[in-house]
Write a structure and sequence with these properties.
With about 210 residues, the chain is mainly beta. The chain has one domain (about 5-10, about 50-205). The chain has four helices and twelve strands. Strands 1, 2, 3, 4, 5, 6, 7, 11 and 12 form a nine-stranded antiparallel β-sheet that branches. Strand 9 (about 140-145) and strand 10 form a beta hairpin. The chain is globular, with a radius of gyration of 16 Å. The protein starts with a strand and ends with a helix. Mean pLDDT is about 80; it is low at about 10-50.
Length: about 210
């Protein structure tokens, strides 16, 4: 059984929110291919939560999904990680009394601009290649995967795309993921992508 992507409500109108319809064939999406590599940063100081950044996205629990890909720049194998959530509430854009937050089920996060300190510390511990970096392709700074060998960003457009390493095409692809349980709830400033295969991750967590 092949997995098909899906989207949800207000998310489709948001910048950087990528929604694929099941009727569309898989296509290649591009991340940092052709972009310049960023230096590997030794200090974690810039990774700390900035209290001036609103954390509008919340989830009761999360997990980290890990796979391996070939770096576009140096062609070496490198791990990549994405954040999966069981459900979420997104208050981005909720400013007036009549505005309603977006509520969704299982999803993976992308273009993460900020994280709560506990989640950030967990990621730094188990997936240090997932860290803030400046993407010239996206013209933004977000928590992106970096090649462990050369430091080049493996952009979210690529790793989370339909043909990317973090979007399984079938059950075998999903089973190949390493799934790391989170450590409590999550707060972030991020966007979310949804697809049917993400529901199956909950079974891996028991």
């Amino acid at each position: 059984m092949a997995f098909c992507p899906r989207g949800s409500g207000r998310a489709a109108a948001r910048q950087h929110r990528r929604i694929w319809q099941p009727s569309q064939p898989p296509h290649h999406v591009f991340g940092e291919r052709g972009a310049l590599a960023l230096p590997v940063l030794e200090s974690w100081r810039i990774h700390r939560y900035d209290p001036m950044t609103p954390l509008t996205f919340s989830a009761p629990s999360y997990a980290l999904l890990q796979a391996t890909t070939q770096c576009w720049k140096c062609a070496k194998a490198t791990p990549v990680t994405t954040v999966w959530v069981l459900s979420f509430v997104d208050n981005e854009g909720v400013e007036e009394p009549d505005d309603e937050p977006e509520i969704g089920g299982t999803a993976i996060l992308g273009y993460i601009k900020a994280l709560d300190p506990d989640t950030a510390a967990h990621i730094q511990e188990v997936a240090p290649w997932l860290k803030p970096g400046r993407s010239k392709t996206a013209s933004a700074t977000y928590w992106a995967n970096h090649c462990e060998v050369c430091g080049a960003i493996q952009g979210d457009h690529f790793v989370r795309g339909v043909d990317g390493p973090l979007f399984p095409q079938d059950q075998a692809g999903l089973d190949a993921f390493q799934v790391i349980a989170g450590r409590g709830p999550l707060s972030a400033q991020a966007s979310a992508s949804q697809s049917g295969w993400m529901d199956l991750v909950a079974k891996r967590l028991g």
